[in-house]
Every structure is written in C-alpha cells, then in structure tokens.
Structure prediction request, 289 residues.
Amino acid sequence: MWRILSAHFDEFVSVYEDRFESRYGRLSAHVQKVVERYLRCGIPDYGFARIKCADCGRELLLPFSCKCRSFCPSCQKRRQLEFAEFCASEVFAPVPHRQVVLSIPKRIRLHFFRNRKLLSKLARCAWETVRDLLQAAVGRDDVIPGAVAAIQTFGNLADLTPHVHMIVSWGCFDQHGTFYAVREVPDDDILEQVFRHRVFRMLLEEEAVTEDLVKNMLSWHHSGFSTYVGKPVPARDTEGLESLAQYIVRGAVAQERLSISEGADGTDRVTYRSKKVHPGHGANFRIMD
Prediction:
C-alpha cells in the first residue's frame, strides 16, 4: 500500500476535482493529512526517539509512528490489540456474548458519507434496537445489556457500506449487577423491522430524508436492511472475545488483498480481492487505475 500511495497519491489529488468530486464530494483536507502522515510512518528521516538501556548502555533508534486510526496497517494493528486487551480485561463481564451486525440499504448510505455526524446516531439506533429486544426477552424494562459498538463504513471490496458491529452481553443486568441470561435469538424479521423503524425516524428528525422516500422504501419487497447475530461466545472465553474485539475495529484496507501490476496500456493497475463474491460487483475483486 505504501508503494502505491507514494507513487500515485499526488496525481490522485490533482485529478480528484475532475474525476471524483461530483460523486464523493470535496476531498477532505483530513484525508490528505492522514496519507501524508502514513507515508512518513516509521521512517527515521522524519523523526525518531533515541532509547538507551541504563544497565548495558545499548542504544536503539525508534522511528516515530503516524498513529493514523483505521488507515495505517501497522498503527491500526497496535490499536486493535490494545482495544481487544482493554475490553477483555476491563469491559466484558464473565457472561455469554454475541456479535450483532446491523446494516442499511444502499439507497440511504450516501447520507452517512456526506454527513459523518449521522454515523454516531446510527450506532445509537443499533444500540437501542438490541437493548429493547433483550429487555423484551427478559421481560423487564429496568434492566440493561452491556455492549461495545464499532462503526464501519467499508465493505469487503472497500466500497461505501456503513454498518454497526456490536459485541453484546446476551442478557441484561439489573442495578445490583445480577445477570439475566437470554437463550433465544430474536427473529431476524423483528430485529430488522425495529432497526429500520429507528433509522428512518432518526433520518426524518435530522431532515436527511423525506417522508415520501421513507414511504417508498417501506413498500420494497426486500427492505435493504440486514441483520446478523453470531454464535454465542461462552463466559470467560477471553481469547474468543479478544479475537472478536479485534475484528470489529479492523482497518478499512487489508494490505494482503492489494496487488499492483502493469496494464496493457503500460499504466499501473491495482487489484483489490476478497474471499467472497460481492453481489453488487458480481466478482470477488475490483480493478482500479
């Protein structure tokens, strides 16, 4: 990835207005700042710390890292490990947990791209949906589940796919810390309907969509919303919870999926591959100049 960006990012910036602005909006200065910091990450020429052992006198040079969240593979991997360790040791109670993923239809995704503040509200919709259904399963509204939520805006082929990943205690706690376990899994249709209702209500309140659009989408045979509830992670399965926590905060781009080659016209071609066939692209890869 470093090779691709170092060779082509300046050209990308120069052609962005003509080729991409009409579709994606103006190029954020933050994007340029992140890429520039990433291209300097770990290179001693841009700064380093000098570390000396007080006992043996040995010295090491430690290049500064960029600390770019969700972009630099090295820095993001460290964040993943630290986040997972923190959650497993300080956050997750010794009770069963499940992963829950809630996604929205393509028709409304662009609203979350153009207004990033809506993403936190999407996470709130996801949390309230799961909370309500687990409270209903327990039969009490004075209890609450525990949950960690992470927003992801990318799909398996690096396309725009805003969705919420959650790790949820599969049951609820009362104010005294007593846990009320839930054994069943909510019906997919009910989970989807409650989430859809909350998302549409939020978007209407934010004036991001019109009532006519909502009515039209409610008439669809397939709503475009999707839900997933994973298998239970047993209580005290620290390794399983850490692995799941790392997964929900993974970086947007996987280096092992990227390859670069020369096209027939002599220009570079970048291929991004996935293990799964993307329904929108009809393939498990994308080729970009």
Remarks:
- The chain has nine helices and eleven strands.
- The radius of gyration is 22 Å.
- The chain has a mean pLDDT of 92.
